[in-house]
């Protein structure tokens, strides 16, 4: 018999996974176990965590507008403001489909009260560039220790994914053995790409989720970028200049392809010295829209395709998982529970670095 019974077992090590586990416990009085290993401060990040992203659906922007203040207040309580940075990211398109999507993004964001502007032609970024001022960037290496303390206060159980041996049940629950002990949870939630790739054995049959290889590179200190954070949506490249002066560059594709794309975005900057490199697998959704639910053939709830703003949607996801979401928020996640083909045609988003997706006018 299991020694401990939990309501939820959340698998993952990303900001979204940790926030989700804590919010399920703190805001919804659920007994939660988090399965994941702390991130090393010496490993390159897999992504950036930003309060905006290049999406086109007004309902996604409306949800971000509602939940971002919740996340900012939470981090303010558990760490203060030093782990968050106000930043003016720029999104750049180099194809007509990308330019059309970013134009749609800007008008949608403006209509919902976000600041957004198109930069003049001939800007130093190249292509068609749109800036979204006053976004919030999470500095994860500073926030993670404080978030770990908060999880302890929320009484979230923690297991290393290296020692955990989970068995997913057909009813959506899970039994997790570790050493000579075991725990059980009524609901298993795969809350980051690594967890999904490790535990969702039906992935190849679930065509909504598309595995891809990504490459992250850190350069030695160099001169500043044209903007503190640049996202080249057609190439699938993100560039972030760190406080030490190096550039973290994350590109879709295996090293040769990703480095070529990253090099194209940094063209004209002269020779750059590489301080580190990391190759990893990630997931995107074929239609660019989030997936929060139990896809066909899965034995767990999957949280995927939320992009760089996923952490800022954590409060709404926690409400959706506990059945407390209401109104537009409830409708948003009901439309993104799973399915394929026509079932998701009405929620398709622009897919960064992926094949062109038709977006609603």
Tags for this model:
single chain, alpha/beta, globular, disordered C terminus
Briefly say what this structure is.
This protein is α/β, with parallel strands linked by helices and 361 residues long. It has eight helices and 18 strands.
Please describe what this structure looks like.
With 361 residues, the protein is of the alpha/beta class. Helices cover 27% and strands 27% of the residues. Strands 1, 2, 8, 9, 10, 11, 17 and 18 form an 8-stranded mixed sheet that branches. An 8-stranded mixed sheet has the order 5-6-4-13-14-15-12-16. A two-stranded antiparallel ribbon has the order 3-7. Strand 14 (237-241) and strand 15 form a beta hairpin. Helix 1 (15-26) packs parallel to helix 4 and helix 1 (15-26) crosses helix 7. Mean pLDDT is 89; it is low at 355-361.
